[in-house]
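Structure first, sequence second, as always.
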């Protein structure tokens, strides 16, 4: 966790009481579901397949680069029955027909063929933490866990029988974290994957895949296509805290200091069916990929400085003991996944950055 706040015990008590009110009062005047202002840009690293930079209002900033390279798949199965164009006078037309049929077949064949090893995530906090520090390892594991649990990304990396893309997601935290950096890194990764483009295959039926050298013809890794994965989006992780029965999104450093519980909620999208004009215009529904509880800074500090001489003082705040209530967890998940909820608002906002 980032360094704890320097607020005095009486200030912490006042802040905790304010967040317990109905409606609650946040230090910066935001509503419980409001996020702090942020700035973002994509496609800023010319040597990558996709990149993004995101900066929060508190000055926290991160940059993500995505690179892809072609690798041979270790386990192929039998590909001798792969359809090929029959020779004839109109061979070019037949080849085009086979390629179109294979394009649809590829989407079906790719289901479940992706491997977790095709995705590699690294987090660099040079100047703030060593590469083997627990916080760095935990952040990289959390981010990779979301990408793998989604399942859609790894299947998109399947090129043809015997070949796949290996994706490297390199994350760099540019500033010292004033708050827990997980949502910053996750949202930046989401934008970088949305901006990622891969060379367009010239032929999918050759033994060795051939690609178009023209970058303008490159295909987006995530694009709206009329297939079973139409409208899918990369997963993202939100940081949510509870104070009593109240739920708050995008907590500040001070709010984290008095949180009763902290959760990292990772969500992905469920693609829409491609049949029907109405269904094609619907947004993909969100689904829960993982939910992890994180020890609040106050609870860790209290455990380190526990004393038998402490007495109950109504003027001082003390961190809550025990786990989260089930109804609070259920409320968090509902606020993220429900139609028109926080998750959809975040996804729409990120799509606005990627389209700009």
């Amino acid at each position: 966790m980032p360094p704890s706040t320097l607020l005095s015990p009486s200030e912490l008590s006042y802040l905790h009481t304010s967040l317990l009110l109905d409606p609650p009062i946040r230090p910066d005047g935001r509503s419980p579901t409001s996020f702090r202002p942020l700035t973002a840009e994509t496609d800023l690293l010319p040597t990558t397949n996709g990149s993004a930079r995101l900066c929060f209002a508190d000055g926290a900033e991160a940059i993500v680069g995505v690179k892809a390279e072609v690798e041979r798949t270790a386990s192929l199965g039998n590909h001798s029955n792969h359809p090929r164009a029959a020779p004839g006078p109109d061979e070019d037309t037949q080849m085009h027909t086979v390629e179109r049929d294979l394009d649809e077949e590829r989407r079906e064949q790719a289901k479940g063929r992706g491997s977790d090893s095709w995705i590699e995530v690294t987090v660099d906090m040079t100047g703030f933490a060593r590469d083997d520090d627990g916080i760095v390892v935990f952040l990289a594991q959390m981010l990779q866990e979301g990408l793998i649990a989604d399942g859609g990304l790894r299947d998109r990396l399947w090129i043809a029988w015997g070949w796949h893309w290996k994706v490297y997601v390199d994350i760099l935290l540019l500033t010292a974290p004033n708050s827990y950096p997980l949502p910053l890194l996750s949202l930046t990764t989401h934008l970088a994957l949305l901006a990622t483009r891969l060379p367009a295959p010239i032929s999918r039926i050759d033994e060795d895949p051939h690609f178009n050298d023209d970058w303008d013809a490159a295909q987006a890794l995530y694009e709206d296509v009329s297939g079973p994965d139409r409208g899918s989006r990369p997963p993202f992780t939100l940081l949510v805290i509870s104070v009593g029965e109240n739920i708050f999104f995008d907590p500040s450093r001070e709010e984290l200091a008095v949180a009763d519980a902290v959760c990292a909620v990772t969500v992905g999208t469920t693609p829409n069916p491609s049949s029907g004009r109405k269904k094609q215009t619907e947004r993909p529904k969100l689904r829960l990929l993982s939910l992890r509880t994180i020890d609040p800074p106050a609870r860790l500090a209290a455990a380190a400085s526990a004393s038998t001489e402490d007495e109950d003082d109504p003027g001082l705040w003390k961190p809550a003991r025990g786990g989260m209530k089930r109804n609070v967890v259920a409320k968090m998940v509902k606020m993220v996944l429900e139609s028109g909820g926080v998750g959809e608002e975040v996804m729409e906002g990120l799509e606005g950055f990627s389209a700009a």
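Margin note: The chain is about 30% helix and 25% strand.
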